[in-house]
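batch_manifest entry 22 of 60
target: Yippee domain-containing protein
source organism: Vitrella brassicaformis
requested by: lab member K.T.
priority: normal
notes from requester: please return tokens only, no post-processing; we will run our own comparison against the previous entry in this batch. if the run fails, retry once and flag.
--- input ---
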Amino acid sequence: MGRLFIQYYDKTTAHRCTTCGTHITAKQLVNWIGVMGQRQPAKNYGDCINVDFSSDFEQTLSSGTYTLRSVYCRVCRNYLGWKYVASGTGDPGNKEKEGTYMLLDDNLEPIEV
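--- output ---
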């Protein structure tokens, strides 16, 4: 087993894992603010670093059916949210979600400088 390759954002913009402090995304990458599941506050981000994924799974959400992957912190394996892999049924405008990340607010925190 080798060493983990960890990337970093500028500390003034980074959001990190609440469990281990690893940089995950940056505030300028927020696409929109919403909720996941049972009204859990979340944000949609355009990109993430230092994450691993589960296998693909199908999920029906309020806006349609999607192929998703669960997203985990690469260091501590904390569940962070999901990645939109593909959109199925529903609004054709949902194609813009493909490749983005929906991450729970409770599992990320901004770095205070």
